[in-house]
Amino acid sequence: MRANTWTLGLGIVVVAVLAMVAAGPSRAEQVPEGFYVGAGGGLNLNDSGDFDIQGVGRDLNTDLGFVGLVNFGYAFGNGLRAEIEGGYRQNGVDEWGGVGLDGDLSAWHTMLNAIYDFDTGTSLTPYVGAGLGAAIVSIDAENNAAGVRMDDTDVGFAYQAILGAAYDITENVAVTADYRFFHAVDLDHEISDGRGGGPGDDYLNHSLVIGVRYAFGKPSRPQTMPAAATPPPQVAPAPAPAPSVPTSYLVFFDFDSANLTPEATSIVDTAASNALQVGRTRIEVTGHTDRAGSRQYNMVLSQRRANAVMERLVAQGIPRSEIAVFARGEDEPLIPTGDGMREAQNRRVEIILL
Asked: Which class does domain 248-353 fall in?
């Protein structure tokens, strides 16, 4: 029993230490760098096994007990922590080698622990740890009828392995839950069954502990460079509205004439200039006459007047392909008159910019 216990306990401690070494320093701490305190309590299962007397091993049976812990430590900000731990365990004693007993098996301990927190990037932080220290183990149990009495205290070397996880409630407060394998070795207790005393055995325990931890340090946050001021987006200026120009012009002619007067020429030039300015791509030129003369003659005269205006527009830079020429004769008078009547307002050419 003793060899198996040592092998199991030391194996768990070695695995915990190797896990801490292999993990290496973490880029982000889970416990803020600085001092912290903690406390916890839970269930304790004692598995001490045989207690020897005069070379005869007898199985010591205990009830499920309790454990209470307090600790004070320092977090280095890279996942590693070092702490001092104090605690107390107690289990009731039922029997020893078939002899019923009434009493307790208990221990006070002090440990120096090394713990490593695994950064998960979340509020949940697994951790592993190992500790070395000393335990003061006491047994106080008896069966007066059988003449058996165990009442002794001894101090022994102790070690433990820790496997658990913490959940951050706030930046500085966390709830912890862990399993602890605790072993104190080479203990000598005076045990009497009416035949004299003898050495006891090891003190081996499995514990489940729930606790709370408060960190005094401030969580470090990655330094961020202030963002460069972003210039406001350049908004393209709205295109300037096209200049507003007249789209309709009237060019008047003398009686029975297709020649442009100086006033008529000025109006045609204005129409051409405005068309070029606003980029019109089609210009309609329509010739008209009054009702003096025959219908056939007036149709030809209105065509000559429209051609005269068209030629002047071309001379001012308007492409011929953009000009549509029409002749209406006397059919669309501006001012209605009787047949054969002269009317200056009807002797005209209309220019329409489209």
From this structure: alpha beta
